[in-house]
Specification:
heterodimer; A: 140 residues; mainly alpha; 4 helices; B: mainly alpha; two-stranded antiparallel ribbon; 5 helices; 2 strands; globular
């Protein structure tokens, strides 16, 4: 009879490595965003050079996170990749439709306050999480 | 799409985790394929066929009647 591999194959090892990379890049991006947001006021007193450097650093780490996400998705097995991409597609649609509508609400004077990008970020995070949960349930 | 993956695995006394490692996918994916909830790609179906020493048609059958 055919000799089987150990129970966790190459896929599991590479997935765990990719997850760790993605976690590292995501935490780094959150920290770099916090630095770019609060550094000017609390650390370097709005020094223009340092502020620009903070924004450039945040963008660079952000692109690192995007590349890491791409690697993570490429390393997933086909079912998990489908779940991820389905959730990402729903998130993109919700972000575009709701983001545009939300921005419009102020222009047409249906809301009195200025729309915040953080609200859209939260909506997209929630949508993505819901999409992932639904995807996992579907194939359980 | 119907398949005989669970039967073939049981005949060889393999666990889902062992089959998953052999096919280089997660155990959840093997489980979803066995239950007919997820249809594998052609490369994965070929891999399973090679592993069991059978043709794809012997393992996977089109569930739709023509």
């Amino acid at each position: 009879m055919k000799e089987l591999k150990a129970e966790s194959g190459d896929w599991a090892a590479s997935n765990s490595r990719n997850s760790a990379h993605l976690k590292y890049w995501t935490v780094s991006w959150v920290l770099s965003t916090a630095l770019a947001a609060f550094g000017p006021k609390f650390i370097w007193d709005f020094h223009t050079g340092l502020t620009v450097l903070g924004v450039v650093f945040m963008l660079a780490v952000g692109f690192g996170m995007i590349i890491s996400t791409k690697g993570y998705v490429a390393g997933l097995d086909e079912m998990h990749r489908k779940i991820f991409l389905d959730a990402a597609a729903i998130t993109l649609g919700v972000g575009l439709v709701c983001g545009t509508s939300y921005e419009l609400l102020e222009d047409i004077m249906l809301i009195a306050y200025e729309p915040e990008i953080s609200h859209l970020t939260l909506l997209m995070c929630g949508t993505f999480i819901a999409g992932m949960v639904m995807g996992h349930r579907k194939y359980q | 799409m119907k398949n005989r993956l669970k039967v073939l695995r049981a005949e060889r006394d393999w666990t889902q985790a062992q089959l998953a490692a052999e096919l280089d996918v997660s155990r959840q994916t093997v489980n979803a394929i066995e239950k007919g909830k997820f249809d594998p790609s052609l490369p994965l179906a070929f891999k399973a066929a090679r592993l069991f020493g059978m043709s794809i048609e012997d393992i996977f059958q089109d569930g739709e009647e023509v």
